[in-house]
Amino acid sequence: MTLTKSLTRVSLITALLLSVPLVAMQFTAEVNWSLSDFVLMGALLFSVGMALELVASQRGPVAYRLAAGGAVLTTLLLIWSNLAVGFIGSGPNAANLLCGAVPLVALAGAVLARFQARGMTYAMVAAALVQALVPVAGLLASHLEVRPQEWVISLVFAAFWLASAWLFQRADAATSGQRLA
């Protein structure tokens, strides 16, 4: 019954969120989504919603759930902003493709760590490092002009990954009985 409630809740919230651009399209030409935009965002929002439901249902340290939820939401914001406007420049380029690889680094690290807090700490730090390298990729691989705000945005996202790493480290300390300074 819990799975059914979660599926229903996430489906309704996804539909509600997707209704915002659908309604906006009726009143302005500024919002112009295609069917594939709705399908992609629907899949993304539904996946994130189900991941958050899973995180919320877990037992253990609150710090772990906060860290995992933060990583999931950071992934959503990263993918959404990259799909909407691109991170560096506009359109497909190596820097924006690398930006898409950041959540894959986090997920691969999480799987390798078997979702244990200590390993998740390292996975989030790795994601933060890759995130910080996105503007460098724009400079080197694509020879793009990287504007100051693009550096700042990348560093803000790196800070989100590092915040999750810090929370995972706190969760590891809580489960292993260590004291943190």
Major sheet size, sense and barrel closure: none
Outline the low-pLDDT stretches: none
Taken from the alpha-carbon principal axes, the silhouette is: flat
Mean pLDDT: 91
- The helicity comes to over 70%
Quick recap:
The chain has 181 residues and is mainly alpha-helical. The chain has six helices and no strands. The chain is flat.
Task: Describe the structure using short key phrases.
6 helices, 2 domains, mainly alpha, 181 residues
Describe this protein's structure.
By secondary structure, this protein is mostly helical. It has 2 domains: 1-57; 61-181. The chain contains 6 helices and no strands. The chain has helices spanning 2-27, 35-57, 62-84, 94-112, 117-140, 148-176. It starts with a helix and ends in a 5-residue tail after the last helix. The model has no long low-confidence stretch (mean pLDDT 91).
List the helices and strands and how they pair.
Layout: H1 2-27, H2 35-57, H3 62-84, H4 94-112, H5 117-140, H6 148-176
Helix pairs in contact: 1-2, 2-3, 3-4, 3-6, 4-5, 5-6
